[in-house]
Amino acid sequence: MSNWVKVAPLEDIPKLGARVVRTKDMDIGVFRLEDDRIFAVNNSCPHKGGPLSEGIVYGDKIACPLHSWKISLVDGKAEEPDVGHTACFNTKVEDGFVYLELKA
To answer: Model-level pTM?
Structure first.
Protein backbone atom coordinates (compact mmCIF):
# COMPACT_ATOMS: atom_id res chain seq x y z
CA MET A 1 0.00 0.00 0.00
CA SER A 2 1.26 3.48 -0.83
CA ASN A 3 0.33 6.98 0.11
CA TRP A 4 0.90 9.98 -2.18
CA VAL A 5 1.69 13.13 -0.22
CA LYS A 6 1.40 16.61 -1.74
CA VAL A 7 4.76 18.35 -1.26
CA ALA A 8 4.45 21.78 -2.88
CA PRO A 9 3.62 23.55 -6.10
CA LEU A 10 6.33 22.75 -8.67
CA GLU A 11 7.18 26.45 -8.95
CA ASP A 12 7.90 26.61 -5.19
CA ILE A 13 10.88 24.26 -5.62
CA PRO A 14 13.65 26.21 -7.36
CA LYS A 15 15.39 24.67 -10.34
CA LEU A 16 18.51 22.88 -9.08
CA GLY A 17 17.07 23.18 -5.58
CA ALA A 18 15.31 21.04 -3.00
CA ARG A 19 12.67 20.88 -0.31
CA VAL A 20 12.66 18.56 2.70
CA VAL A 21 9.70 16.39 3.66
CA ARG A 22 9.90 15.19 7.25
CA THR A 23 8.37 11.82 8.10
CA LYS A 24 8.43 9.98 11.41
CA ASP A 25 11.23 7.74 10.09
CA MET A 26 13.44 10.11 8.08
CA ASP A 27 13.82 13.35 6.19
CA ILE A 28 13.39 13.08 2.42
CA GLY A 29 14.98 15.52 0.00
CA VAL A 30 12.79 16.38 -2.99
CA PHE A 31 14.90 17.81 -5.83
CA ARG A 32 13.98 19.72 -8.99
CA LEU A 33 16.40 19.44 -11.90
CA GLU A 34 17.07 22.07 -14.56
CA ASP A 35 14.63 20.26 -16.92
CA ASP A 36 11.88 20.17 -14.22
CA ARG A 37 12.25 16.45 -13.48
CA ILE A 38 11.63 15.72 -9.80
CA PHE A 39 13.52 13.15 -7.72
CA ALA A 40 13.39 12.22 -4.04
CA VAL A 41 15.98 10.47 -1.87
CA ASN A 42 16.68 9.96 1.80
CA ASN A 43 18.14 13.31 2.83
CA SER A 44 21.06 11.62 4.61
CA CYS A 45 24.30 10.97 2.69
CA PRO A 46 25.42 7.31 2.99
CA HIS A 47 28.93 8.49 3.91
CA LYS A 48 28.59 10.60 7.09
CA GLY A 49 24.89 11.54 7.07
CA GLY A 50 25.29 14.97 5.48
CA PRO A 51 22.03 16.76 4.54
CA LEU A 52 21.83 16.14 0.79
CA SER A 53 19.16 18.83 0.34
CA GLU A 54 21.85 21.40 1.20
CA GLY A 55 24.21 20.12 -1.51
CA ILE A 56 24.74 21.23 -5.09
CA VAL A 57 22.50 19.70 -7.76
CA TYR A 58 24.13 19.15 -11.15
CA GLY A 59 22.77 16.98 -13.94
CA ASP A 60 20.90 14.21 -12.14
CA LYS A 61 23.27 14.08 -9.15
CA ILE A 62 23.65 15.83 -5.82
CA ALA A 63 27.03 16.65 -4.23
CA CYS A 64 26.92 16.19 -0.46
CA PRO A 65 27.76 19.46 1.32
CA LEU A 66 30.05 17.75 3.86
CA HIS A 67 32.57 15.79 1.78
CA SER A 68 31.40 16.23 -1.84
CA TRP A 69 30.28 12.65 -2.34
CA LYS A 70 28.27 12.54 -5.56
CA ILE A 71 24.94 10.71 -5.20
CA SER A 72 22.73 9.78 -8.16
CA LEU A 73 19.21 11.12 -7.75
CA VAL A 74 18.04 8.41 -10.19
CA ASP A 75 19.13 5.33 -8.21
CA GLY A 76 20.63 6.70 -4.96
CA LYS A 77 24.09 5.21 -5.60
CA ALA A 78 27.33 6.97 -4.76
CA GLU A 79 29.57 7.75 -7.72
CA GLU A 80 32.79 5.71 -7.90
CA PRO A 81 35.26 5.47 -6.28
CA ASP A 82 32.88 6.03 -3.34
CA VAL A 83 30.59 3.17 -2.35
CA GLY A 84 27.14 3.32 -0.78
CA HIS A 85 23.58 4.24 -1.57
CA THR A 86 20.56 6.01 -0.14
CA ALA A 87 16.87 5.20 -0.52
CA CYS A 88 14.93 6.63 -3.46
CA PHE A 89 11.22 7.51 -3.55
CA ASN A 90 8.73 7.83 -6.39
CA THR A 91 7.54 11.29 -7.33
CA LYS A 92 5.02 12.73 -9.76
CA VAL A 93 3.77 16.13 -10.87
CA GLU A 94 0.02 16.56 -11.33
CA ASP A 95 -1.83 19.82 -11.96
CA GLY A 96 1.32 21.79 -11.10
CA PHE A 97 1.88 20.09 -7.73
CA VAL A 98 4.71 17.75 -6.70
CA TYR A 99 3.73 14.50 -4.96
CA LEU A 100 5.91 12.04 -3.08
CA GLU A 101 5.00 8.36 -2.64
CA LEU A 102 5.45 7.04 0.88
CA LYS A 103 5.10 3.31 1.49
CA ALA A 104 2.74 2.33 4.27
So the answer is: 0.93
